[in-house]
Structures are given as C-alpha cells and as structure tokens.
Amino acid sequence: MENGLADRRLRAYGIATAVFALDRLTKWFIETRFSFSDTREVIPGFFDIVRSENRGVAFGIFNESPSELRTLVLIVLAMAAVLAVGFVLRKARHMDAASLWALSLILGGAAGNLFDRIVRGRVTDFLELYIGDYHWPTFNVADSAIVIASGLLLIDLLRPKRRVANVP
Fold this sequence. Notes:
Elements: H1 3-33, E1 39-43, E2 47-54, H2 70-89, H3 97-120, E3 123-131, E4 134-135, H4 141-158
Antiparallel strand pairs: 1-2, 2-3, 3-4
Helix pairs in contact: 1-3, 2-3, 3-4
C-alpha cells in the first residue's frame, strides 16, 4: 500500500473518530446534567442549550411515526450509510482535501447518531437556534458535522475543476 494513501486514510478515519468522540461526549454531558425542562440561554434571542430526543431522522421527520419498525429501519439505513462512506474513504487516493474532510465528517456524524439509535433507540439533541418565534429544529454535534460536510461537498461540486493535460 502506498504510504500517502495510508496517511490519507488514517487522517480521514481520525477525523471521523474525533467527530464521533465529541458527539458522544457532548451528548453524555447533556444527558447527565440537563433535564428535559432545562434551558440554558447562550446567546439571548438566538441560541439556547436544551435537552430533547428524536426518534425520527433529521428535523424530527418520522419522530411521531407509530410504526414499531421505525427504529430498525433507521438503524439499517444509517448502518448502510456508514458502511458506504467507510468504503468510499478506502479510495482516498483520488480525493481532494474538501471531499476527504466532508466524507470524514459524514462518517463520524452518522456513526454518532447510529450509536444512539442502536443503544437507546433515539438520538439526543441539544443545540437550539432561533430568531423570534422561528425555531430551527434542535440538533447535535453529529448533525452539525453532517451539515458542514454537505456544504463542503456542495462547494466542491460547484467550484471549477482544473483539467489535467492528456488525461481522458
């Protein structure tokens, strides 16, 4: 195996592991120190820390679903995503830095929320952004990593690529 590829893979999996660890640490902190009625105002009128749980997916989609299969289906889908991104990262040699970072953030974030679903059947959320009466759905570190990664991938997709001469 080429040493450069091994270094890129190690960096990618290291980033994913750091995201996973930070996600677990922050969720543990919230779960052990906050009740569901606690609200800590961080930036008045804009940002609070609260404790909530989400049995669905992003933005509470499927949160109220009465299906007993909901959690199992979400675990299977999240596991498929983690495996797919992990597999793609194995081919890190042909990725630019933005794509490598993005996929690493997605892997760490998806693994963090997958862990919650497997162990507890739900995901702990605690970051709440709002302006006036408009509240963005509560989220966590894993969700943040996935959103940042999506932005990186979008930017990478939209930026002009340099063409290499004599390459089909």
